[in-house]
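chain below, 227 aa
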Amino acid sequence: MAAKSSSKDKVLNMVYSLGAAVVILGALFKVNHLSLGPISGSFVLGIGLIVEAFIFVVFAFDTPKGEYEWEKAYPELLDGKPIERKVKVPEEEKLIKEAEVSLSTKLDQMLSQAKLDANLFDRLRGGIENFGAAVSEINKTVEANSATQKYGDQLTKAATHMESLNALYQLQLEEGKKYTEINQKFVEDLAKAGENSAQFQKQLEELTSNLNNLNKVYGGMLNAMKA
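prediction:
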């Protein structure tokens, strides 16, 4: 069996660990050229090496620790030959078979009490198949509803477009009516202007005739005065 850890082992373990720490610190000071006041890296490294040498001296006088005596637990380790397994006696085989039969019987009883037979599994399989069919029908219904909704949306958009077209057509009709009225008024104004022009022409002719007559009168008067 393994030897128990004594106070001596604990002290030596502490000495080894602390000594190794001093050596590592000395190497750190030396490599990085560190110093702590008058304490230089070379000084710390020298102290670390001295401590390391002291640790090796102490370790030389340390007694080896005990090990587990595995040969007591495994006798085959003594001569290196495997030990043959014991042959089962008929009584042991009988007990094992009875235990197996008893376990199988108990398992059958548990399944019977739980009513876990072939019919139950058939019903379970049928239920799963029916559930799958129901899910498929639901998916079809959902797809149909989605298509109906999409068709309804398209109809709504088409109706909106038709309303826009009707409004545009009504606006065009109103604009055409206004344009027709403007043209009709323009034609009427042209006709009135034509009538006024004819009347003006007639008055101008009358004025010209009067002027001619007046010139004749003035001419006669001038001739009479000259005579």
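The radius of gyration is 65 Å. The beta strands are 35-36, 39-40.
thats it, cya
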